[in-house]
RNA polymerase sigma-70 factor (ECF subfamily)
Amino acid sequence: MSKVEEFEELRPLLFSIAYRILGSVGEAEDAVQETWLRYDASTTVPDSAKAYLSAAVTRLSIDVLRSARVRREEYVGPWFPEPLLADPYQDPERAAELADSVSMAALLLLERLSPLERAAFVLREVFGFGFDEVAGAVGRSEPACRQLVVRARRHMAEGRTRFEADRRERAELAARFFRALSEGDLDGLRGLLAADVSLAGDGGGKAPQLARAVLGADKVARLLAAVYPGLLALGVSCEPRPVNGQPGAIFRDREGAVLNVMVLEVLDGQVQGVRLVVNPDKLGHLGPVADPWVLHEELRRSRQGGAGS
């Protein structure tokens, strides 16, 4: 097998590792591409291409994450991972770990870890690498890596919320949610939301966004029922589909450009959380991106016109 064939066979795994460490589709793709460039230029013939390339993409991702953490500390408003529509790497034996680890809730928990803890946890707990492989990837001894994973497990367990496992139930609830959303059905929305539901948006200062999270079923339902029917009346479309393994939807303007992405967190037959990614910088991998300020102004004018009629 040639270098190119080896690399392409492992590309889905390399991207999935990098995305979980970085929480960014663009940065993960860049890390994978840099891994290829280094592999192609190397004269080393590794015993295991998988171990070699996984270690290389992990080290690159750790370096990127260290610099990214500084930017995220200065980020305007809540920071959410870039939405991922489909994980390219599949492993039936680790399907549960892979699905759980890509949710936005899990990725936000991973943000609490140090770069080394995060990388060690991802390699060991998500992808099942041996501690010898983890040690080679992060540049620490095996005992040190065991400690990194123990600390990471503890931090993840402290904040973890298990979401609805039954995909059919989640899909049915999401269908009812988005139907009520499009109709502006306040009572319908309220009935699907948990009493302590939270709604938060990531605009990064580059799109209209909430000043703070909205809490409680009544407040969240009223906000959604007030905003989204108006957007749909302006030609915005709602495209329900899984996002980061959870029920979600892509909203597009009348030209088909991406306006925002919504992700639902479902537990016990109710929506526990609603996350909105509206920062245009985080949507480019999904296609052409709409100007959210234009839609915001159109919505404002339509409301004024309606109020004046």
User: Anything to note?
Assistant: The chain has a mean pLDDT of 93.
